[in-house]
Inverse folding.
């Protein structure tokens, strides 16, 4: 353009639309819409951005669903790569349905839904979905066969999600996600189950946080079974020991366990015994692990009942490394616990790498190499 | 520091965590000459140049080439900054550390002017440096977030080719997207 002022050259004019849209992908949708008044070229760019970021900030309970509907209706008929919804408002299920159906019909690959309050969420089957992150969602009235219908999902993150089964006391919610490789469950609740199964044929990494009986999401006595023949890494943190009735981890390489038993003084002998036994039976599922990371609280739970651990054979067969993290300086791993952890690896030379101070965390780590 | 396996015990010793970073392999670094659109020649280490997919495929097509590679769409000023970014990036290839990488990326964009960032985008696109493009797009989006239309126009150097009537009409048409947004 001849009349362009010197120095005010349109630096993006030669770029293809999709590069400019990649910038818009990092904006919330209402800001992306605002760019339509920049120039003729920008007028319709927002309507085909691949990523949609909705944030309820600034909206009221009635107007946010209306806004969602209008955005959908003004968009061009093009695929959604990522749908991101952050809401501090209770959204009616019907408004979410419209948005989610739209995304599913447009081949959404990545869906993140973050809510301030636990609310029911509707999730239809979706073959295009690869990554899902849900925070504070409730799956109510689940039938016997309930499972997420995402055959191509590879990564699933659930934070404070409720699985409310109505007709059955057995649940296997992830079995139909046949391609799931990464699963992270943090503070999820399964209040009506007597038995929870986690089936993941392709699962490589599994992390469970905030698990346990009572206020930690499982009905007292609920048994948990995990079938993950390809699992390499299992992390169980900020949790209490529960009854793992079957852990099928033939490929396991790395395991990390941070559990504790609160109020040791008040806990009855029965409680202590049960916690210890639950943890030991969990450890039996880790036989193939090569690298183990434990915390001093975990060691204490193993050693809650005098004489109990000594009767147990060491669970590990291929162990190469044990890390024990501790936030106390004076903690010593008792000899019989060391023996329990390491006895299965006799015949190998034992090297101690010693204790290292982590300056940032003020944490105590001891590492044992075998 | 070893004991027999029949009698495994944990003894303790205070050591400092190793902060040693694997030093770069001391191979004689091959250099590649790259010529920018304003005829400046940059002598770049091969490992850095291979970060540019466009240059990489040039050498894949002509493996024994010792010629200077022309980069007709790349001006020298943003190119020197792109090289700076890629030099940092290859350090993380040997030692992947996502936290440090993010820190380094945010340091990189922090000290750049708006103009620097916007000028690097076409270069990153032409050279097909996906990581840099993502970093730049995010940085640009952060800087135009919550800014007025006029600010964004001057940020990108966009000519407003709407008549004032057209623009007013369009603003009215899109008012629905903002009608319930609180001013803050």
């Amino acid at each position: 353009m001849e009349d362009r002022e010197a120095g005010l050259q349109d630096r993006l004019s030669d770029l293809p639309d999709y590069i400019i849209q990649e910038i818009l992908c990092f904006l919330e949708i209402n800001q992306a819409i605002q760019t339509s008044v920049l120039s003729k070229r920008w007028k319709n760019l927002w309507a085909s951005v691949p990523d949609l970021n909705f944030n309820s900030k600034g909206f009221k309970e009635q107007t946010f669903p209306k806004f969602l509907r209008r955005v959908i209706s003004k968009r061009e008929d093009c695929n959604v790569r990522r749908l991101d919804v952050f809401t501090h408002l209770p959204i009616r299920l019907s408004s979410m349905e419209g948005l989610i159906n739209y995304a599913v019909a447009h081949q959404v690959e990545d869906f993140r839904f973050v809510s301030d309050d636990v609310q029911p969420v509707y999730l239809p089957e979706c073959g295009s979905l690869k990554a899902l992150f849900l925070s504070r969602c409730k799956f109510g009235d689940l039938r016997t066969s309930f499972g997420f219908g995402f055959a191509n999902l590879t990564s699933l993150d659930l934070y404070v999600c409720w699985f409310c089964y109505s007709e059955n006391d057995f649940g296997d919610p992830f079995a139909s996600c046949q391609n799931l490789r990464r699963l992270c469950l943090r503070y999820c609740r399964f209040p009506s189950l007597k038995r929870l199964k986690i089936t993941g044929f392709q699962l490589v990494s599994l992390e469970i946080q905030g698990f346990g009986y009572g206020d930690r999401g499982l009905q007292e006595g609920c048994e948990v079974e995990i079938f993950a023949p390809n699992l390499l890494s299992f992390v169980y943190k900020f949790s209490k020991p529960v009854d793992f009735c079957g852990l099928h981890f033939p490929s396991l390489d790395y395991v990390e366990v941070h559990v504790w038993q609160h109020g040791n003084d008040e806990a009855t002998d029965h409680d202590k015994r049960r916690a210890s036994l639950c943890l030991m039976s969990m450890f039996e599922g880790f036989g193939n692990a090569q690298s183990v990371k434990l915390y001093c609280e975990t060691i204490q739970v193993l050693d809650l009942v005098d004489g109990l651990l000594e009767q147990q054979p060491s669970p590990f067969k291929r162990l190469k490394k044990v890390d024990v993290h501790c936030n106390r300086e004076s903690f010593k791993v008792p000899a019989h616990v060391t023996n329990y952890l390491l006895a299965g690896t006799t015949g190998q030379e034992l090297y101690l790498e010693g204790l290292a101070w982590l300056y940032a965390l003020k944490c105590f780590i001891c590492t044992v190499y075998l | 520091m070893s004991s027999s396996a029949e009698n495994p015990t944990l003894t303790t010793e205070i050591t400092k965590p190793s902060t040693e970073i694997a030093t770069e392999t001391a191979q004689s670094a091959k250099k590649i000459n790259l010529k920018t659109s304003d005829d400046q020649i940059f002598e770049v280490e091969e490992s850095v140049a291979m970060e540019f997919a466009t240059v990489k495929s040039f050498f894949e097509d002509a493996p024994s080439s010792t010629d200077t590679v022309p980069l007709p769409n790349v001006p020298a000023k943003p190119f020197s900054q792109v090289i700076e970014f890629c030099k940092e990036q290859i350090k993380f290839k040997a030692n992947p550390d996502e936290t440090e990488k993010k820190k380094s990326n945010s340091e990189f964009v922090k000290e750049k002017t708006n103009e620097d960032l916007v000028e690097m985008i076409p270069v990153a696109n032409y050279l097909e440096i996906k990581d840099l493009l993502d970093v730049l797009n995010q940085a640009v989006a952060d800087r135009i977030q919550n800014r007025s239309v006029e600010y964004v126009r001057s940020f990108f150097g966009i000519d407003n080719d709407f008549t004032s009537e057209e623009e007013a009409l369009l603003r009215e048409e899109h008012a629905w997207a903002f009608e319930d947004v609180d001013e803050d």
